[in-house]
């Protein structure tokens, strides 16, 4: 059985063989990743099938609980691929619950428990607590999170957000790109198809 490719497809698959491919490396508890998501999502809506996105979770070692939240994305993606981006957005909307003072005096097990409860509450009854807990206990989700980090390092990723378009890195990694920035990048590529 071939290994699963790293990353989560937005709307699950590449829409057209000749579509522009964006690869985004995000950390769910990174404020810059959070700020870069709305303009990127708006651009994806504007360009439709002409642009495809695959998101790679990249747990920055200096962000508290980045690994746990990235692992949660892998757990949910294994349970239901259509909920992965919903969870990413929920983490973005509630980042302050997962770092600094909110988790400074708790153990890693307590953070995982808090994350399991959060995932179950955010995504509804189809994600019962036991299924999410089992996902965290499964060594495959831990390994997938490690592979995501190593894959990013292999590609030269050193911060989030970090973007590649058709395999080429965009400048200003670690900074949010606004909607007009995406239009400036994508328009020439889409018109040359």
From TrEMBL:
UniProt cross-references to SUPFAM superfamilies, sorted A to Z: Thioredoxin-like (SSF52833)
Every DSBA-like thioredoxin domain range: 22-167
Molecular function as annotated in GO: oxidoreductase activity
Lineage top rank: taxon: Eukaryota
Coiled coil: none
Pfam families: DSBA (PF01323)
Record-given protein name: DSBA-like thioredoxin domain-containing protein
Source organism of the structure: Genlisea aurea
């Amino acid at each position: 059985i071939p290994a699963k490719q790293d990353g989560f497809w937005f709307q699950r698959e590449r829409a057209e063989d000749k579509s522009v491919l964006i690869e985004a490396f995000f950390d769910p508890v990174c404020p810059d990743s959070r700020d870069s998501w709305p303009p990127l999502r708006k651009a994806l809506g504007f360009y439709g099938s002409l642009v495809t996105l695959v998101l790679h979770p990249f747990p920055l070692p200096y962000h508290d609980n980045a690994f746990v939240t990235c692992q949660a994305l892998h757990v949910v993606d294994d349970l239901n691929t259509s909920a992965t981006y919903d969870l990413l957005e929920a983490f973005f909307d509630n980042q302050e619950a997962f770092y600094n003072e909110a988790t400074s005096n708790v153990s890693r097990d307590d953070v995982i428990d808090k994350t399991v409860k959060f995932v179950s509450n955010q995504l509804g009854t189809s994600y019962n607590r036991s299924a999410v807990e089992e996902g965290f206990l499964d060594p495959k989700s831990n390994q997938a999170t490690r592979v995501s980090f190593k894959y990013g390092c292999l590609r030269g990723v050193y911060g989030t957000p970090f973007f590649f378009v058709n395999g080429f890195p965009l400048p200003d990694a670690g900074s949010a790109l606004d909607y007009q920035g995406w239009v400036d990048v994508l328009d020439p590529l889409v018109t040359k198809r």
